[in-house]
Specification:
The structure holds two protein chains of two kinds.
Chain A (H helix, E strand, L loop, with lengths): L3 E4 L2 E5 L4 E7 L5 E7 L5 E6 L3 E5 L2 E6 L4 E6 L8 E8 L4 E3 L3 E6 L1
Parallel strand pairs in A: 2-11
Antiparallel strand pairs in A: 1-3, 3-8, 4-5, 4-9, 6-7, 7-8, 9-10, 9-11
Chain B lengths: L3 E4 L2 E4 L5 E7 L5 E7 L5 E8 L5 E2 L10 E5 L2 E6 L8 E8 L7 E3 L3 E5 L1
Parallel strand pairs in B: 2-11
Antiparallel strand pairs in B: 1-3, 3-8, 4-5, 4-9, 5-6, 7-8, 9-10, 9-11
Classes of the chains: A mainly beta, B mainly beta.
C-alpha cells in the first residue's frame, strides 16, 4: 500500500513564528488532504489538495504530485494552532494517514 | 459537503462488554469507512462498509470483533465486541463528500475508554 511520511514529528514554536510541515507519499494519488486534530479528537479538514496551491487565511498548502510531496505552511502562528496535523492520501476510497506532526505554539 | 452525526461522543465501558457506535449522514453515500485511532497514534482503517454487502475488513481486523451494519445509504454502525483495555481508542467514521473538490469528511469521533 501507499506509504505516507510526515516531518517533522514534533514542532515547538513561539507565537508569531512561521512553520512548514511536509508530507511525502510513495505512489501517485487522486486525493490528498490536510487535517488538524483538535484536543477533543475531532478532525478538521484544512485542505483538499491533490495538486496545486491553496490558501485559507494564515494557512496555505502546496502539492507537487509529480514529486509526491505536499507542504502545509502556517504563518504568524497562534496558540490555537496547537494540535496534531495529519496528511492523508487515497486512491479508490480508503485513506492512508501519515503519523502526524504535533505542533505546540507557546505564548 | 456531507455532514456526519456520530454518537456516542464518548463512553466508558467495562471489559467484556460491547459498544455500538452510530454514524448518520445527511446525504446518500455509497461507501462509508471506519477508522481507529489508538492513543498517541495515527488513524488506521478498520473496514469499508457498502450498502447491501458485507463490509471489507483491513488486515488485522475481523468481523467477529468489529461487526458492521450498513442498512441503507445514510447510516452505519460499528460494534466493538468483547472489549478489553486495548480497545480504548477514538473511533471515527468517514464518507466521501461528493464531487471532486472536497475529499473525505469525518465524524466527530467516539472516544472509548475500557476499564
Amino acid at each position: 500500500g501507499i506509504q505516507v511520511e510526515q516531518s517533522p514529528p514534533d514542532l515547538i514554536l513561539q507565537e508569531g513564528a512561521n512553520s512548514t510541515l511536509r508530507c511525502n507519499f510513495s505512489d501517485s494519488v487522486n486525493n490528498l488532504q490536510w487535517f488538524h486534530q483538535n484536543p477533543w479528537g475531532q478532525l478538521i479538514n484544512l485542505f483538499y489538495i491533490p495538486s496545486g496551491t491553496k490558501q485559507n487565511g494564515r494557512l496555505s498548502a502546496t502539492t507537487v504530485a509529480t514529486e509526491r510531496y505536499s507542504l502545509l505552511y502556517i504563518s504568524s502562528s497562534q496558540t490555537t494552532d496547537s494540535g496534531v496535523y495529519f496528511c492523508a492520501v487515497s486512491n479508490a476510497g480508503k485513506s492512508t494517514f501519515g503519523d502526524g506532526t504535533t505542533l505546540t505554539v507557546k505564548p | 459537503s456531507a455532514v456526519i452525526s456520530q454518537k456516542p461522543s464518548r463512553d466508558i465501558c467495562q471489559r467484556g462488554t460491547s459498544l455500538t457506535i452510530q454514524c448518520q449522514v445527511d446525504s446518500q453515500v455509497t461507501m462509508m469507512f471506519w477508522y481507529r485511532q489508538q492513543p498517541g497514534q495515527s488513524l488506521t482503517l478498520i473496514a469499508t462498509a457498502n450498502q447491501g454487502s458485507e463490509a471489507t475488513y483491513e488486515s488485522g481486523f475481523v468481523i467477529d470483533k468489529f461487526p458492521i451494519s450498513r442498512p441503507n445509504l445514510t447510516f452505519s454502525t460499528l460494534t466493538v465486541s468483547n472489549m478489553s483495555p486495548e480497545d480504548s481508542s477514538i473511533y471515527l467514521c468517514s464518507v466521501g463528500t461528493g464531487g471532486s473538490n472536497y475529499g473525505y469528511t469525518f465524524g466527530s469521533g467516539t472516544r472509548l475508554t475500557v476499564v
